[in-house]
Amino acid sequence: MTTESKAARAAGPTLPSSPPLTERQEARRRRILHTSAKLAGRGGFDAVQMREVAESSGVALGTLYRYFPSKVHLLVATMQDQLQHMHETLRKRPPTEEDPGARVAQTLMRAFRALQREPHLADAMVRALTFADRSVSPEVDTVSRLTTAIILDAMGLEGPATPEQLSAVRVIEHTWHSALITWLSGRASIAQVKIDIETVCRLIEVTAPGADAGPGTGPGTGPGTEKQGKPGAGAMR
């Protein structure tokens, strides 16, 4: 299985239970998402008003609500769209670092800097994720799968990821999201974000198949392996 196919499987379909959109419906959806990103980029979460989105997109308000039942649904879908664009850009210009952990850190910092260029949009999307309830679960899950796909692509695995590696990926995702929140709130500098991302990405080497648990020990046989390894992976499931 290629890295791209693994990433595609990780990302999964956006709405598995929904029929494919027609060309006209897809064009309408693209206009709506473009308008959402434009308004959020100007004034953040509060600037995205459903009536204005509908008017600027050239659709009826009722049509907008059929596509996106609430502003939170719309902004989470906007984040999904932004991540898809990032993923395509990253595939065209993949990371150059030799070490897998360093490649992931480089990739996530490039994604972070893309969001940094539009802080109001980033803040609106993150706030939507924070406000999302169970009704938005499919969209939130797709955002998570896209983030996972980006990380897996950067790792460049030769085979399927192990449960331990997938657990490490989830921790990296959580850290990246938390770093974004703390930066947006002014509680962390870009330099601190970079340090945190590079630190958590070291988990990729720790969880690589065949990685030694300690000096002079075989793979997975070092002191504390059972205490730290297996329960840690299980806790993330």
Order of helices and strands: HHHHHHHHHHHHH
Structural class: mainly alpha
Compute the number of strand runs.
Answer: 0
Biggest beta-sheet profile: none
- Amount of helix: 55-70%
Q: Uncertain segments of ≥5 residues (pLDDT<50)?
A: 1-16, 213-237
Distance between the termini: 24 Å
What would you call the shape?
globular
Percentage of β-strand residues:
under 5%
Mean pLDDT over all positions: 84
Global Rg: 19 Å
Number of helices: 13
Describe the protein's topology.
Layout: H1 3-11, H2 23-43, H3 50-57, H4 61-67, H5 71-92, H6 100-116, H7 119-131, H8 137-155, H9 163-184, H10 190-200, H11 203-206, H12 225-228, H13 230-235
Explain this structure.
With 237 residues, this protein is an all-alpha fold. The protein contains 13 helices and no strands. The protein has helices at residues 3-11, 23-43, 50-57, 61-67, 71-92, 100-116, 119-131, 137-155, 163-184, 190-200, 203-206, 225-228, 230-235. Helix 1 packs antiparallel against helix 8, helix 2 (23-43) crosses helix 7 and helix 5 (71-92) runs parallel beside helix 8 (137-155). It is globular and about 60 Å long. The protein starts with a helix and ends with a helix. Mean pLDDT is 84; it is low at 1-16 and 213-237.
List keywords for this structure.
mainly alpha, 237 residues, disordered C terminus, 0% strand, globular
Concise synopsis of the structure shown:
The protein is mainly alpha-helical.
